[in-house]
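Support request, please re-run this one:
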Amino acid sequence: MRITLPSGLTWDPEAEIPARLRARIGQKPDITPLLEQEAAALRMQALRVTADGFPFEGAERDYAAALPLLTTAPCPEEVVQTAGKQYLALRQALRLPDEKHFWQPEKKPQKTAQPEQTDRGRATLLAEQWRRTLDQARMEWELEQIRQLRESFLKWLETTLDLLDELQGYADDLGLDPGILLDLSKGSLTRQQIDQFRRWAGYLRSDPGVRSLCDMLGRLRQAEQITRMERAMISRTVESHHADPHAREEIVGIRLSRDIEHALPEELALLSDPDTALLFDLKFVEARLMCFDMQGLQGIRQQQEVEEENPVTEDGTMGPMILCIDTSGSMAGSPETIAKAVALFLASKAREQKRACHLITFSTDIRTFDFSEGMGMDALLDFLALSFHGGTDAGPALSHALKTLETDTFQAADVLMISDFVMAGLPGPTQTAISTQRTRKTRFYALTIGNHMLQTPLRTLFDAEWIYDPDKRSVQALTQIADIFLKGPGSDL
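Re-run finished. Output below.
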């Protein structure tokens, strides 16, 4: 969209994007909303700067004040002299050639006391030259402002494209789609943000234990196959046979007629004796000869619409996901890094699989991040930038998760709690509510970061438990538990 500047110039920043950058933009359609936002902001900035920042606004006011006097006849020489000084000051500020000899010539002595009048044409010429000089100055100044804004816009665009290319490389290493991970329409992209993401992506890529853990947790409740009956109208060709009396193909009976060619032998025998031949003639005339009745069958094909029920097997949608992350002081250090990396991976996978995702961080209080409507960079960085401190109280987090499960979006969700589980037990009402939710197909999972298992009272509340030891950087201890989860209880290990 083009804008019109005060001088009459029109400008559209998007129209000035060079072909080499347009080609790169075409490969990254996700950047289009961000590009449109930046271009709209640049248009507003151009209008604001050109409307208020013209350095010769004082000269324009002087011109507007002098114009009525210069265009009124007769014009006093004193007015022309004053206006000429202002005009020459403008030319000097613009570093234009000096025209003092023309607009302020040496005065000749006056012989009369009458005020000196200026030739009308000279005053009009001054007004025209003044206006032309101001217009030229404004146009050149606006062009310079546009040039600076254009350079800034193209530099921003190229930097953003470079950052996206870099982000693409990190995301490819992790098997993630940058467009799924980062919604550019909900946040900008800066070098600091890329460095932040590179830190976690590098950690996931370099630590095989955490990566294996993420891959395993990403398979929480694989989509079940659903079989349903589907009704459909099917066009079929149906062939039917109808009797055709004109088709003499087979004998079907005896009938009375005068068809000699089909007469019974007994009737034809009457012709062998002159006395009985008269009887044959009489039967023939009366069409009372006994004859073979013959007919054929004619096949007719017709198209008919038939309704049928067919079984259709399709993949069911994966359920929503609720992540409860322990951010207490006991999780500081390596457990914090693991928790953030796992949460980053699972949240991105949830978006890729179009699963609603709600993240709850807890220590002595809770903080929530809803990624159901899209995970903007700002919300993501807010979580990754959290410092882990304080005590551990999982009760409020689970209470909030239970309230979230009552909403339509998060019914029958997968709830994963990541913690070192150095905490007291849960309140009785919370344990009862968890048991109730488990009867509604909600699944509760626990990931313990440390080298010890859950206490028995807590273990009974979760459908599966995983343990990750940061020191060993291995998921071997998780394999059997994962097999129980993936194959079902009672499987042989």
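Residues 226-313 form one domain. Residues 369 and 379 are 7 Å apart (CA to CA).
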